[in-house]
Amino acid sequence: METRIYSDMDRETIAVLHVDGDRGVREDVAEQIGEYSDMSVTGTRTIERATDRLADDPVDCVISEYDLSDGTAFDLFSRVREQYPDAACILYTDATFAEIDNERSEEMVVEYLSKRIPGTEQRLPGLVRDITRGRMQVGYPVPENEDERLDTVTEYDLDEFASSPAFERLATLARSHFGVNAVFIGIMKAHEEELLACRGAEWSVFDRQNTICTYSMLEDGPTVIEDVQADSRFEHNERLEELGIRSWAGVDLTTPEGTVLGELCLIHDTPRTYDEADLEDLRLFAEEVVEQLELRRRIPPSETTPELGE
Amino acid sequence: MYELGPEFENAAVSPGTNILVSGPPLSGKRRLAMEALAHGANDGEGAVVVTTRDSSDRVMADFRALLTDPDQAHIGVVDCVTQHQGRSPSDSDLVKYASSPVDMTGIGIKFSEFVEEFYSDRGVRQNRIMVDSLSTLLMYSDLQTVFRFMHVLTSRIEDADAVGVHIIESTAHDAETMNTLKQLFDGLVEVDDDKQVSFQLPGTA
After folding, report:
1. A9 confidence band (pLDDT: 50, 70, 90)
2. Mind listing the domains of chain A with CATH numbers?
3. How many Cα atoms are found within 13 Å in the side-chain-facing hemisphere of B166?
């Protein structure tokens, strides 16, 4: 289970980590990026120090020189993507393309900007913004109206809701109704799916790229994946295998205005099927979840009556 | 606007459009995509082919055959095959090499070098890009990696106000893979076994 959470700031300020052994370059980049109020940059010189930074503060973008004293940029980028799969990676380097070890860079999708071309440092801020805001290096599809959708998700004060027992109760009911290993109610944020409630497993947050919800939220109606390992989108997904997610059924949590906030999901550890009546029931459970969310959005927490908030 | 020519029912698409051309083997989808590039190249536009399937020699020969004046055309090929087969040619004006179909960083860089050279150095403002093919990429890498890579590539094509024509073997992948990848494209062209072509292009009925 992933335990850290990307900062809620991630949609406001782009957090950049810059790694380069040359102090002068770090200062130049800090100056270039520092001019923009929607970005903040931290500079450091080694992979080790960068890794410490990653543990403390979430990043949206990592810029690195290729040659570092304790490895190459690709060693660093691998660590970054393990922790923040959606992070943008930019190689900003003196090394020519021929000097870069192709074996090591295989399958890594990163941007390359040569320091050798005069004036490239001025292109950095624009590049950082395009890649992060445009989610260019992200490994999964997002809904067409993603920015508006995320704004709507923000309107629901989910931290407040998470403490409400109503959602846990619905998950408990759904779990016994369908006879599955686990049930969760997940809200899809920019980079992660946060669980409002989960029964049958100790899960609280998933990286967005590892979730089935990422895909099912793009489809209309309930989605059933009888056998996760037989689906080309998930057969290589080690995370799902580790978590014992072998069968999956889910339905969108859609607001009255038609925005998909997340999914209500049924998880089982062996392949299984659901009939039409099951899916209709699943839809009803989802409607109930949305209704609870709507009530809580309309009534500020302080005014919530005991019947609603318990 | 980019005119796609008679093979595309004379449709025109806006700068930044990415089109996916799918079809079974031997259906003529590759030739169709090349026709779209040739239509522009014959009119002074740039043409860049990223090949993960055939060598650049083969691509260059096939493409030049479609041009009225091949020596005057702005052509670039990003060859991801030849070095992978163990040979080590160096980059020329016409061909740049990536080490293999999984060398995502290399492919991206070589592609950008061509587009930048055409656009900035030669003043060629309209450029068409062909990627042949997504199916080879999927043979070497998983869907998530290919999606990430194609997301970057299609975004760059969009940023450059170019047009992308991308090829995929329809029979080689399941519906889930196809549907996931289709999210990246603005237009779809499907060729069937009988070489019948259907178009779903933005801005055309």
Report:
1. very low
2. 8-133 (3.40.50.2300), 146-309 (3.30.450.40)
3. 28
Residue with tokens 């946060």: A194
Interface probe with A: pick from B144, B153, B180, B185, most Cβ of A within 10 Å? B144
Domain boundaries, chain B: 14-191
CA distance A251 to A223: 6
> Per-residue pLDDT tens for A129-152?
999 998 999 999 999 999 999 999
Q: Are B76 and B47 in contact (CB under 8 A)?
A: yes
Whether B152 contacts chain A with CB within 8 A: yes
CATH class of B14-191: alpha beta
Q: How far apart are CA A234 and CA A232, in angstroms?
A: 6
Q: Give the C-alpha separation, B1 to B7, whole Å.
A: 17
Per the structure block, which two tokens stand in for B61? Answer: 């020969």
| ipTM (interface predicted TM) | 0.85
Mean per-residue pLDDT for B125-142? 95
Q: Cα–Cα distance between A142 and A147 in angstroms, integer?
A: 10
CB-CB contact of A52 with A76 (8 Å): no
Query: DSSP for B143-195?
Result: HHHHHHHHHHHHHHHHHTT-EEEEEEEGGGS-HHHHHHHHTT-SEEEEE-TT-
A180-198 pLDDT tens trace: 999 999 999 999 999 999 9
Best of B116, B148, B177 to mutate (most A CBs within 10 Å, chain A)? B148
Q: A24: Cβ–Cβ under 8 A, 6 or more apart, which residues?
A: none
SS (HEC) of A57-80: CCCCEEEECCEECCEEHHHHHHHH
Q: What is the residue type of A102?
A: N
